[in-house]
Amino acid sequence: MTDPRRRVPRTDTLLADPRLAEAERTLGRALVKRVIADAQQKARSGDITPDQVADHAVAALPSGAASLRPVINATGVVVHTNLGRAPLSQAAIDAIVTASGATDVEFDLETGRRAKRGRGALAALAAAVPTAGGVHVVNNNAAALLLAAMTLAPGKEMIVSRGELIEIGDGFRLPALMESTGARIREVGTTNRTHLRDYADAIGPDTGFILKVHPSNYLVSGFTSGVSVRELADLGAPLIVDIGSGLLTPHPLMPDEPDATSVLRDGADLVTASGDKLLGGPQAGLLFGAADVIERLRRHPAARALRVDKLTLAALEATLTGPPPPVAQALDADPADLRARAERIAAQLPDAAAVPCVAAVGGGGAPGVELPSAAVSLPENYAAALRVGEPAVVGRLEGGRCLLDLRTVAPEDDDALVEAVRACS
Ligand SMILES: *Cc1c(COP(=O)(O)O)cnc(C)c1O
User: What reactions does this protein catalyze (predicted)?
Assistant: First the structure.
């Protein structure tokens, strides 16, 4: 009897299989060879037979060359940091595809001359916040704050309330980030209470600016007091407000969430925000402010290191000018519609029931705001199987059940959700 290892098909032979040849075209040779090597190894160790190697390799091919997989966010957390924050609108996705080749991001096709980089996105941002004298876009809100500190407070002090020295996630702390520029934090007030006079007493020749940070991922409640933007603006020192979530105008569901338009109107010199939270766009840091302040930021040498790529500019512009992105749709969803969808989905599945539940804004926005919602409730053991399914579905565990909260699921994904659950039952 021949040694079975001798009959394991050779790599060349396998690469000639039409299915694997096609995969080589879309995924690249190295990746396909790695999948083939795994299958050959399984045959050598007797896990599969030699004539199963090709089929096994085909089945093990990833769907794309990158390892990131699509996920249906059924957590009920609208802006979920671990799931990539805001899902992009179709308009933004289309804009990214268009911009992905050679594109006129920094070129005027009429004159054949160099043009201002990202002018379309900047114009859309300026139009969305007309109270801003100037706008600028960097890589994320952390970069926006970094640029502000480098430009407006080199070697100087940034006055911040002790109640606003926040950690933004994954161990990153805003004070440490700001101090990495060489500017110093001057803490004022206490964790729960800071008064106008605390700020006023701290202002002096070393003051670079006052920084007001929106506590976007926690609530300080009880015996508390803070100082409004309007009062701080009256102190005369430059005032920067980090609103975090990226609301450009007030949102009725989130009355306590600051927005760029109102904060500028109240006298802030500069406002910073994220692009991929409540705005529902790509990761970006948005800066709104007086024209001369924005111009100084743009001209700082480090601005070049913080600039965004053409894909971000494309997605940001389309988010601002196009139809409401998924985040806006999730926030504005009608609870009655959510209930109807939950009932329709549950009726198609064994072990499932439609239940009312409460969704959250999440992702550094509107802590404490409860969004009435509806979910498909499944036995708890579905959760793990759904996570590794295709597409992956991430729900949340509550009261010993796996809830699939429909507020964060796009209605067009309902059928895929049904299929994903069926594949687990
Ligand atoms: C989310 C957040 C940040 C960090 O923003 P990134 O865009 O992730 O860099 C900073 N400040 C506040 C108040 C935030 O909510």
Answer: L-seryl-tRNA(Sec) + selenophosphate + H(+) = L-selenocysteinyl-tRNA(Sec) + phosphate
Q: Is 89 in the pocket of ligand 1 (CB under 6 A)?
A: no
Boundaries of CATH 3.40.640.10 in the chain?
90-322
Q: Strands across the sheet with 239-244, in order?
A: 134-138, 285-289, 270-274, 239-244, 207-213, 157-161, 184-188
Nearest residue (CA) to ligand 1, atom 14 = 244
138, amino acid identity: V
Which CATH code fits 90-322? 3.40.640.10
Q: What is the pLDDT of residue 364?
A: 62
Run of H or E including 186: strand 184-188
CATH code, residues 71-84+328-424: 3.90.1150.180
Give rounded-to-5 percent helix, strand, coil for the chain.
Answer: 40, 20, 40
Structure tokens at 295: 């111009």
CA of 383 to the centre of ligand 1 (A): 30
| Average pLDDT by stretches of 10, the chain with 425 residues | 71 96 95 97 95 96 92 97 96 98 97 97 98 98 97 96 85 88 94 92 97 83 85 97 95 93 98 97 98 97 97 98 97 97 97 96 80 98 96 96 98 97 93
Cα dihedral 177, 183, 189, 192, rounded to 10, equals -10
For CATH 3.90.1150.180, the residue range(s) in the chain are: 71-84+328-424
